[in-house]
Every structure is written in C-alpha cells, then in structure tokens.
Amino acid sequence: MLNIALFGPPGAGKGTQSQKLIEYYNLAYIATGDMLRKEINEGTELGQEAKSTIERGELVSDEIIVKLIEKKIRANPDVEGFLFDGFPRTLVQAYILEGLLLKLNTSLTAVIALEVDRDELKRRMLERGKNSGRADDNAKVIETRLKEYDNKTAPLKKFYKEKGQFYAIDGMGTMEEIQTRLRNQVKATLKKEWLNIVLLGYPGSGKGTQAKLLAEKYNLTYISSGKMLREEIKKGTEIGKKAAPIMEVGGIVPDELTLPLIESKIKQHKDSNGFIFKGFPRTIVQAYILDGLLRKLNSSVSCMLEINVPAFELMDRLNARSKTPQGRAYDMSVDVILHRMKMYENKTVPVADFYKKMNKHYSVDGTGSTEDVFQRLSSQIEHLSTKVR
Q: In terms of Cα–Cα distance, which of 49, 52, 61 is closest to 90?
C-alpha cells in the first residue's frame, strides 16, 4: 500500500496537490477536519460525541480522531493506499498512526512536506482572504498560524527524518511543476522499498526452481531455510548436527535453529531489492517471526505466492526427482513424502490463510513447463509491484 502523510504550512497548496495525488494513485483522502465536520453534520454517534466535546470548549480527543481514521480506512478496502492531510499534527499522534497502521497490516510509506517561502505563503493567504472573505486570512492571524505550524511540526520532522521517511519538496512554482515533484518523490520512495516475496507450495511444486529464477530476474536475495540448514549439516556445525535427524524424516526444524540463519542472511544483503523466502515461514509462528523481523527493519512481506499443483502430479515429480542427483533423502520414501504432504496441510496451509486475511495471498497455477509457471509468477509480481506506480 502507498500511504502518504502530506505536510505543509497554511497556504502551501496541500488541498490542491492532495486531490491530484489521490486521483493519480487511487488513494483515499483522510483529512481529519473534513471527516469531523461530516460526522457532526450527519449526526452519527462519533459526530455527536465530537460535537458535545466542542460545545464544552474542549479539543476533540485523539481517541475520537483515531476512530474516524479507522472508520475511513475500513470503508475503503479497494483503494491502493491513503493520503493523510492534517494528521499527524503532534508527536503523540505520530505514534498513534504507527500503531493504527500496524493494526491494519500496513505502514506509512513517506511523509512529504511542501516548503514555500514565508512571504509567498502570506501573499497567497492574503489574496485568498480578499477573494473568499475568510476572516482568518488576515496578517495577524496568518502569522500566528504559521508559528503554530512551525512549533508543532518541528518534532515531527525530526521523528520521521530519523526513520528515513521525511522528504521536503519545493512548493514554489506552477501547480503542475509541484505535482511533478511530488510524483517523482513518490516513485523514488517506492523504489527504495524492499520487494519481499514468500513462495509457498506443497513438496514437489517447484518452489526452489522458481524462487531462484525470480531472485535473478528481480535482483532479490534468495533465502531458503532448507538450503541454509543443509549447508550447516555439511559443515558439521552445532545447528547442522541438531537439524540433520529432523530433516531426514521431513520434519520442521525448530525456530531457534532456523531464525539466526535467516536474520544473518537478511543483514548481509540489506542493499538488495528485497528477498524471496522459500521454505519459510512453514508455520503460523514462523509467519509472526518473519513479520516481526522485517518490521524491525522498517519493511514487511509484500506478497505471498502459492504454487498450486494437483496431488498426483506432485507425487510423480518427487518420485522422478528421487532418481536424479538432485534427489533429497526425504524423496526416497513414499511414507516420508506422505508425511511431508500432511505436515504442509496441517502446518503451512494455515500460513496461506494468514496472508489471505492480510490481502497478500495470490494463487498461481504450477502446472506446465518451468517457463510457463515462471511467466505466471512474473506477471503476478509485476502486476503487484506496479499497482501504485
């Protein structure tokens, strides 16, 4: 998802530029002031709660504002993201937004600030005052509003700069010039984000072959928990010694053995375009682990692709592989193959359901030639990675 917080002092032109961005990227517009007025005018429960607060001369609480934002987000499931105008306004609200988006399985992509010369801001608002008759567009009030903006946004700028999410855009020039700068910044920000793919499928579905091909095509780091564990076994490390007997019977190696290998691999390849995970996560617990690991690095799973192949074809493929140099120890026994199939059904199918609830699950037909399946997977990835560009 593309989630943008647009900053800018009064008179910077946020409203005009926001409208163009939401149309171009298919975003939902979240302006807390507008939403608050709408709820009050419609007499909703939230509106009545806010109105009674305002009538008592008090500021509308962050709790009410959060309810409004969450309601708006849930009411727009088909958009490609959200543009926040007027929120967050304080450091507390910045933390609130982090938590809210985390709860909704998304995160903030960028905070973009329109920067305009002070004299130009005053000129714009005074001109607006003449044309619109707005009482607050006079020299004294304008100066107060600009100082208030500076005081409130300074801590926010620092907060988002430290997270590497803050970008300043020149807000001087024509409407079209400013919009072009904004879109260029959005494109540059999206390119910096990792493309993280989880590739799932029953044993014999071709995950390993396809993961390597996709990693090469999209310049991703290939992370196969099975491959790393086999390397540990070959080296005779402590991890390898503990993993060997489990892998021989097609079992799931404990997370405390697998996690350090995956975390180390990610840290070694932070400059890549992202990661493709094959064989991990295989359980719901591992899905939570991967989510936490990526979030710690300000990233997340982009999508989960599940390769679907009929059961009889899976058995044929594994049987054929057992007779080649690529055959695994666990390919040699029908009992072990069936055990692995049941393990996938019981442990990994729920992982696919987990990603379905996050709207990140995509099913791909795994039948046909390697090239056919690769083309289907590539088409799905390209569709997902260009939806908001």
A: 61
**pLDDT per residue as tens digits for the range 5-34:** 999 888 888 888 999 999 999 999 998 888
Strands in 110-115's sheet, in edge-to-edge order, are 27-31, 81-85, 2-7, 110-115, 166-170
Question: Which member of 134, 187, 192, 323 is catalytic?
Answer: 134
**Environment class of residue 13 by beta-carbon count within 10 Å: exposed (0-12), middle (13-18) or buried (19+)?**
middle
Give the tokens for residue 44. 């909703």
Examine the residue annotation and report whether 128 is marked as an active-site residue of this protein. yes
Shared domain check, 239 and 100: no
- Of 136, 161, 192, the residue at which a domain comes to its end is 192
Catalytically annotated residue among 20, 71, 72, 145: 145
Q: Is 89 a catalytic residue?
A: yes
Among the listed residues 89, 124, 321, 356, the single catalytic one is 89
Q: How many domains does the chain have?
A: 2
Q: Is the pTM of this model over 0.70?
A: no
User: Do 321 and 343 fall into the same domain?
Assistant: yes
Kindly report, residue by residue over 164-214, the tens digit of the pLDDT: 899 999 999 999 999 999 999 998 887 777 889 999 999 889 999 999 999
Domain containing 360 equals 195-385
Residues paired with residue 303 on neighbouring β-strands, in sequence order: 197
Catalytic site residue 282? Answer: no
Q: Is 134 part of the annotated catalytic residue set?
A: yes
Does one domain contain both 255 and 381? yes
Virtual torsion, Cα 140, 149, 125, 172, nearest 10 deg: 140
Annotated active-site residue in 128, 230, 328, 347:
128
Is 181 noted as a catalytic residue in this protein? Answer: no
CATH code, domain carrying 160: 3.40.50.300
